[in-house]
Specification:
about 425 residues, alpha+beta, eight-stranded mixed beta sheet, three-stranded antiparallel beta sheet, 13 helices, elongated
Length: about 425
Amino acid sequence: MLDVRLIQENPEEIEKALQKRGPRISLSGIMEQEKGRKKILAELENLRRERNEASKKTGEAKRKGEDVSLINQDMKAVSENIKTLEKDLRDIETDVNNALLELPNIPHESAPEGRDEKENPEIRTWGEKPAFSFEPKEHNVIGAESGILDFERGVKIAKSRFSLFKGKGARLERALINFMLDTHEEKGYIEIRPPYIVNKASMTGTGQLPKFEEELFRLDEEEKLYLIPTAEVPVTNIHRDEILSLEDLPIKYMAYTPCFRREAGSYGKDTTGLIRQHQFDKVELVKFAAPETSFEELEKLTQDAEDILKRLNLHYRVVCLCTGDLGFASAKTYDIEVWFPAQNKFREISSCSDFTDFQARRMGIRFKRGKNAKPEFVHTLNGSGLAVGRLFAAILENYQKEDGSVIIPDVLVEYMGGIKEI
């Protein structure tokens, strides 16, 4: 959520910054609502002052034994007016808040300007594309032929975009999860095992609501409970409505969870394989940082996610999302894309983002620089460390052999109980 005071003070500058994302976003509605709010506040202050003065007069009149009925009538009318204005104030504050919830974050000055993903600059690459003496197969073909993936039965049990991991495939997925958690723990991330179901306040805090409700699986209409689309939601909400200490920052959390997404609007895209599923597993990295260090922490977080691919010896690249491709809540994002040889393309496996104080303002997460210091909003960050299904698919494609078998990367052999090949 943007600071309404910034909008009041610099509406043209904020509009100009938001315009870098794409179509012009007008702030005139919010400005008008804010004028109305200030007008009501001024009227309320006058009426409350009038009520206080009348209350004093009543006390003095009673002490003198004078009739106070006329004063009481005036006070009753004033109190009724105050009650009406207080309701008007609550209504307009709700309208302003709802309007602010619909506004995206302001892109950071270091985010490259551009219209869409075609204009995302490549920052760096690592490793080399594997060379094959045969035509490499796609991961879904390898998985089905080797019996470690079953897409048909996943559809039978649930619906399209669900799958089964079987035998050594299930073990490989579990190995990847444990390997990533152990690796990130070495770097100081604290493991969290959060709920997979969250309430509306949690979804609103991280920015999934109200804008992206169609992407979510809602469980309960009355209580408004949702399956999590990513561990970012419950983990970032751990410190909602709390005041942290500067000495606590940065706080680094990690969590393995299943994730659930409707993938609304993606029909016809990646309908086969593990790339775009309604249920998938992910290891998520979340940070809470001081404003002056958050972009430094973004670089470190991105490198922590990259390290998983380096240890698995998978070719990848890092791109910086241009302003037109930024996520709703993000001020700056790096996408890590791993190489898929059968598809002859890079595919996203992690997005690492700095949200500045956008989420913290929605959630009320603040910190103090000292005992008597004024609370400030923290900066929140998160990134996949990594998406398990896509990493599983990348291993099948990059480590495949001509006979259809798959070599297990060296760092995973221990996690596979000594199995070196599927």
